[in-house]
Amino acid sequence: MRNNTFSSKWLKVSEVAPYVIHVEIARGPVNAFNNELWHAYGTLFEKLADEGEDVRAVVVSSAFPKIFTAGLDLGDAGNLSQDTNSQSADPARIALNLQKHIKEIQHAIRTPERCPFPVIAAIHGMAVGIGVDLTSACDIRYAASNARFTIKEVDIGIAADVGTLAYLPKITGNMSLVRELAYTADWFSAAEAERLGFVSRVVEGGKDEVLAASLELAKKIASKSPVAVSGTKKLISHARDHSVEENLDYTVIWNSATLQTKDMAESIAANRGKRVGQFGGLLTKSKL
């Protein structure tokens, strides 16, 4: 993969192993998300999905050892507040503009969920506000033991609106604790996040350790059939949002196509031969 095609001012992209991509968020000093960064983040994952040369797993981390993200750039938030409090502005038009703005942020931060490959969040240091939104939209979350989280939005006078309140009740299944953390903006530790069910593993240490564990997981996933992994991701996400009956019906339709894959024969042969399977890329370039 040509890394310079995907890297941008605040997002460093590298292929660290065959089919495995590392995305580092690198807006100094604390990875505060302004309009330019969240837009670039969404665009990056769209490009990886549409133009990446056989991307099979992505790991997202911070470039800074002590912090994942400080959340929303308060400078941007301040500008937005000034616009909404303007005496000359029409409230209806303000509302319509705000709806558009919020939807654009939601769409960008949730882009990993729409990608055909799994996205793993390697979380270390502080993850504030939008850091919970961003990682909630990833498939898997690993946390360093030094990670700390807060749903911070109530402390700036708003309800979290980019994904946390939609995802957390379905990720964790503990509505009481979700409400407590969202109402209070209290910090919770990596260990508490694991007990809550928000992260699937706590890795002792900091950035280097959690990143290494996340990359090993990504390599393991990338060794599997990309057709099987992509289909599994799609069906799990569908199951979250639909009844059992609806998901089973959807699975019938999905697998009636994907069961025709050549990856099945190769997977069986690889298992019997105790070797790593050799699979083609998930997407092919159109000849139209």
UniProtKB/TrEMBL annotation:
GO biological process terms, semicolon-separated: fatty acid beta-oxidation
Sorted UniProt keywords: Fatty acid metabolism, Isomerase, Lipid metabolism
Similarity remark: Belongs to the enoyl-CoA hydratase/isomerase family.
GO annotation, cellular component aspect: mitochondrion
UniProt keyword Isomerase present: yes
Gene Ontology MF: a single term: delta(3,5)-delta(2,4)-dienoyl-CoA isomerase activity
Name of this chain's protein: Delta2-dienoyl-CoA-isomerase
Species lineage: Eukaryota, Fungi, Dikarya, Basidiomycota, Agaricomycotina
Coiled-coil residue windows: none
Pathways involved: Lipid metabolism; fatty acid beta-oxidation
InterPro entries attached to this UniProt entry: ClpP/crotonase-like_dom_sf (IPR029045), Ech1-like (IPR045002), Enoyl-CoA_hydra/iso (IPR001753), Enoyl-CoA_hydra_C (IPR014748)
